[in-house]
Amino acid sequence: MRTGPRNLLTDVPGLAVGNAQDEAIRSGVTVVLPQDDDFVAAVDIRGGGTGTRETAALAPDGVVSAVHGIVLSGGSAFGLDAAGGVIAWLASRGRGFAVGDARVPVVPQAILFDLLNGGDKAWAPRPDRPNPYRALAVAACDAARSDFALGTAGAGTGAMAGGLKGGLGSASVVHDSGLTVGALAAVNARGSALLDGSAAFNAWAVERDGEYGAVPPPVAP
Fold first, then answer.
1. Could you tell me the pTM of the whole model?
2. CA distance 21 to 132
3. Per the domain annotation, does 67 fall within a domain?
């Protein structure tokens, strides 16, 4: 196997990814947009405090066989408004599941908790102030392309990983058969990402091209 040409999710043909973030609120949105309307998706939800939207549409016994976008967002439950922005963006372009003459975009979403990162969250308890995530989602759709930023970008803007800054990550591999597998993650982990007593990451063994800082694990005495 070898790394894909970009080492990004978008090495999988037919996908574009867009980010949008607001530095004042320290949060953002990442959108995955397939070029075609036959992009099949599935979901596996784990954890004790998950937040998702429209994932039930991906059940194998349902009538929906494809999705028109996927959203990752900060903002906890407030961030679930982001999918509405993507739905409106897609609908304005005639994309969606056909129900007679209507088109209903299918856009599953997952959120992460970033409400305690020091950003301006004064809008959250104010129904008279607009939720920012819908507009961020539209901006992310407008920005979608093959190359996109990682780290403090999109849904990873306000993410943390233990005591370290979390963020958006992506990778891809190309199998010897020619099959490309890509991944995209907004990492907002509770536990430490480092080896005990070290500046080396737990994942040091799979580091590519110094992406973790090329810090080796400690040598046993």
1. 0.92
2. 10
3. yes
